[in-house]
Amino acid sequence: MAKQKMVVKLSLDDAKKRTKALKTAVTMDGILSVAIDGDKLVAIGEGTDVITLTTLLRRKLGYADLISVTSENKGEEKKEQKIGEIKNMHPVNYPYQYSYPYQFPYVYHDNSYGQKFYSTV
Known about the structure:
This protein is 30% helix and 34% strand. The protein is built from 3 helices and 6 strands, in the order βαββαβαββ. The two termini are 56 Å apart. The protein is elongated, with a radius of gyration of 33 Å. The protein is of the alpha+beta class and 121 residues long. The protein has helices at residues 15-26, 50-61, 76-87; strands spanning 3-10, 31-37, 40-46, 64-72, 106-110, 115-119.
C-alpha cells in the first residue's frame, strides 16, 4: 500500500486538546507520523482509513474537518523502471519437458460371455 498524507483541521484551543488529538491519531493502526501545524493535524500513514480518523477526532474533540488526502509515492517511479527492464528481458526456454505417461484403458472382447471387459494394464 502507498503512504498517505492526511490533513485534518481541528479546533485546538489549549494544550489538553492538542495532546488528546495526538493520542487519538497515534493509536490508529498504520499511522507512521503525526504533527500539528497551527490548527491542522498532519498524519502520514500506510493503509489507514481517513474517515475513521476524522470520526474519532470528532468524537474526542467535537470538531474535525478533513481538508486533504494525498499519496506520497517516492519509490513508485523506481519500481516502474524496474518493471520496464524486466519486460525487455527474453524469456527462458527450457529444452526438456517432463510428462508422465498416461495409460489408456484397453478393451478386451471375450465373445464367450458376450460382454466387454475393461482393464488398465
